[in-house]
Amino acid sequence: MNFIELAEQRYSLRKYADTPVPGEAAVRCAEAARLAPSACNAQPWHFVLVDKAEKIRELGKAATSPGLPINSFVRKVPMIAVLVTEKPNITSRIGAYLKNIPFHFTDTGIAAEHFCLQATEEGMGSCMIGWFDATRVKNILGVPEAKTIALLITLGYPAGEKIPKKRRKPIEEMLSWNGYVKEL
User: Fold this and answer.
1) At 40, is the secondary structure helix, strand, or coil?
2) Which of 1, 5, 6, 96 ranks highest by number of CB atoms within 10 Å?
3) Closest CA to 84 of 14, 28, 153
4) Distance (Å, whole) CA 122 – CA 17
5) Model confidence, pTM
6) Given pLDDT bands bounded at 50, 70 and 90, which one contains residue 184?
7) Distance separating alpha carbons of residues 155 and 29, to the nearest angstrom
8) Alpha-carbon distance 68 to 64, whole Å?
9) Helix (H, G, I), strand (E, B) or coil at 124
10) At 166, is the secondary structure helix, strand, or coil?
11) How many CB atoms lie within 10 A of CB 184?
12) Which DSSP category does 127 fall into?
C-alpha cells in the first residue's frame, strides 16, 4: 500500500483479539522506530516490549485512575511497548537549551509513530497512551528513576473492529501557502 493508505488505516485501536503478537513482528516495529530521524541524530529512546500477562495487567492498572473510565482496555492487550526517553547527545541538548525546545520529546514522538505505522503495515493495531502513573511504570519494569517514560503503546490484532472513518479537518483549515493564513 502507499503511504497515504497506510496513514488512513492507522488508528488508535482499543479492542484487541487474544492473539499473541509474534516477536518478529514486534521487533520490526522497533526497527521502524530505530530508523526514525532525530535532532542531531541523538536517538533518545529505548523501547521495552512487554508480553507477560501479569506485567501487562500491572501496567494496565498504572494507566487507569479511580473514577476515570479511561484506558481500562490496557489490562487485556497482548503487548505493550513502553517508550523510555533517554538522555540526548550533547549537541541535541545544547540546541534544545538555546532554542528552548525539548527536541527529545519531538524525537520520541516521531519514533513512536514509526512504531505504530509499522504495526499497521503488519496488520496490527496500536494505541499511544499518555495517561499513566510514570513512577509505577518505572517500578514495574525496573526503569531508573532519572529516566522519563514518554508513552505506553498497546499493540495487537484487532478484535473484529472495522477501521473507523477518520474525522479530520479539511485540508484548507490546516494548510496555507507562503505565509500563515487562517480565518479566526
Assistant:
1) helix
2) 96
3) 153
4) 15
5) 0.93
6) low
7) 10
8) 7
9) coil
10) coil
11) 2
12) E
CA–CA gap between residue 12 and residue 33 (Å, rounded): 17
Region 103-109 average pLDDT: 94
3-class DSSP state for residue 115? helix
Phi, psi of 138 (to 5 degrees): -60, -45
Distance CA 125, CA 148 (A): 25
What is the spatial distance between Cα 62 and Cα 82, in angstroms, rounded to a whole number?
A: 12
The residue whose grid cell reads 547527545 is 89
CA distance 159 to 172: 35
Question: Is residue 5 within 8 Å of 148, Cβ to Cβ?
Answer: no
The answer, yes or no, to whether residue 160 has pLDDT greater than 70, is yes
pLDDT above 90: percentage of residues in the chain: 84
**Which runs of consecutive H residues, i.e. helices, occur in the chain?**
3-9, 23-34, 53-62, 90-99, 103-121, 134-141, 171-174
Grid coordinates standing for 83?
517508550
Angle between helices 103-121 and 90-99 (to 10 degrees): 120
Task: Write out pLDDT tens, residues 122-137.
Answer: 999 999 999 999 999 9
| Alpha carbons 116 and 125: distance in angstroms, whole number | 8
The rounded distance, in Å, linking the Cα atoms of 62 and 48 is: 16
